[in-house]
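Could you join me in thinking about how sequence relates to backbone shape in a protein? We need material for that, and I hope you will provide a protein of your own picking. Once you have written the record down, we can walk along the chain together:

…
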Amino acid sequence: MRASLADSERLAELVKLVWPEHSLAELVEIINGYILSDSSAVFYERADGQTAGAALCCLRHDYVEGCDTRPVEYLEGVGVREAYRRRGIAKKLAAACEQWAREKGCSEFASGCGLTNTASLRFHLGIGFEEENRIICLRKHCKGKTNGYGKPPGPSDDRRFEFGGRERAKTAPSLLQRLDFQGNLVDKADQG
């Protein structure tokens, strides 16, 4: 099912199982950003009267590794409650994202996972993704630039970025990268 703003708190509770260090309010803000944008969507599946899993996806207009077209639909994250794993819920959620992307005119569907996240890789390969490349992403702070607090910018800064035409907290990509596609918290080593 496609999520609406009325679903955000319930979905945040699901995502909180994966990212317990973040407040429900932060997670609701991230989910709301995806729901409100024309360039992103949130889907969820229910089982036994509760939300069993959720997926976040978006259109990427910049370069996406291995893709030839623009925009490309990108599967940002899929989380499934432990009691509902291995029942095809994550596969259904990814299929809903893919259908949404086709309706948006996409001909390519992309995703990513950490180099050592074998569960996520198996999931992706199992639903038809093909491995395109393995990369390590790097960054370096520019000398003399600070975050306004006299320090180089860091992951805890409240910097903002544009996504889907809406400004959101910069924490969104790092949060999404922490959710493996089986709903597990990725090792801290995988996040570095």
